[in-house]
């Protein structure tokens, strides 16, 4: 509904000129066939980059240097607290119990199996306490800040926009890459956490909640702003992980 409203607003402005009005009407027809999350992705200049980062292909090929994987995992693990706060806030703001339950179950995975993956990986990579406690890189701090801001906003659409970017972009690369045979758990488990029926269901749930919200134009603009900021944070994070910035 919100999408149609935005397009309708631009149709009203455009109607001063017949040709432009016709074009706007054509885009209204196209836009109303799109869900909110499809539209957000279609408007995102960096969506392709964050779902096709070479890091993921090297991870699946088993050729990713341990130093790169270490930098990525140590930094990614620093999101955990802010992510738990964001997901818990979304659960608290969801309209019904039925809307909360899948989120709560995903929260259990994040704080359970995924968290033990980090611990086991840090052990396998031989990281001491100092390496695990490395300060957050600027890209990490920026993303943590965005997650906390979305959580504190009290706005369900802001929370969902950030969660959808984080989980949908990971499902996209997780389903895209082809892990080679005999991959170590370090590589394979991180891919497996981000593909398959369960994780696809999590993404469908988060997208479905955002798509179901009847957002007016200003709320849609807020959702888009959080979505775009989250995509930028993901892009900067991949760049950092591949050695563009940050430290081991
Ligand atoms: C990377 O770490 C894994 C896990 O400890 C180890 O098996 C592997 O040999 C390491 N790779 C290199 C190139 O050092």
Automatic annotation (TrEMBL):
Signal listed as a keyword: yes
UniProt-listed Gene3D superfamilies: Heme oxygenase-like
Taxonomy, superkingdom: Eukaryota
Native source species: Aureococcus anophagefferens (Harmful bloom alga)
Keywords, in A-Z order: Signal
Transmembrane segments: none
Binding residue positions for substrate: 76, 114, 167
Domain Thiaminase-2/PQQC as annotated: residue spans: 45-242
Protein name: Thiaminase-2/PQQC domain-containing protein
Active site annotation, chain numbering: 234
Keyword Signal: yes
Signal peptide residue numbers: 1-16
Cellular component aspect of the GO annotation: cytosol
GO biological process: thiamine metabolic process
């Amino acid at each position: 509904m919100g999408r149609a409203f935005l397009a309708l607003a631009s149709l009203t402005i455009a109607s001063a000129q017949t040709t432009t009005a016709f074009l706007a009407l054509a885009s209204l027809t196209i836009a109303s066939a799109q869900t909110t999350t499809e539209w957000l992705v279609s408007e995102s200049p960096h969506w392709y980059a964050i779902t096709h980062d070479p890091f993921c292909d090297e991870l699946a090929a088993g050729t990713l240097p341990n130093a790169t994987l270490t930098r990525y995992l140590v930094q990614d693990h620093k999101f955990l607290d802010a992510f738990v706060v964001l997901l818990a806030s979304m659960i608290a703001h969801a309209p019904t119990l039925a809307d909360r339950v899948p989120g709560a179950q995903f929260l259990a995975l994040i704080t359970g199996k995924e968290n033990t993956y980090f611990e086991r990986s840090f052990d396998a990579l031989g990281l001491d306490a100092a390496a695990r406690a490395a300060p957050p890189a600027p890209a990490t701090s920026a993303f943590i800040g965005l997650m906390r801001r979305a959580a504190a906003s009290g706005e369900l659409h802001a929370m969902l926009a950030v969660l959808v970017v984080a989980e949908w972009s990971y499902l996209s690369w997780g389903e895209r890459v082809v892990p080679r045979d005999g991959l170590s758990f370090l590589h394979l488990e991180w891919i497996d956490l981000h593909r398959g029926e369960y994780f696809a269901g999590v993404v469908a749930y988060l997208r479905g909640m955002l798509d179901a919200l009847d957002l007016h134009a200003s709320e849609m603009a807020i959702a888009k702003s959080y979505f775009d900021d989250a995509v930028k944070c993901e892009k900067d994070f991949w760049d950092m992980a591949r050695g563009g910035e940050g430290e081991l």
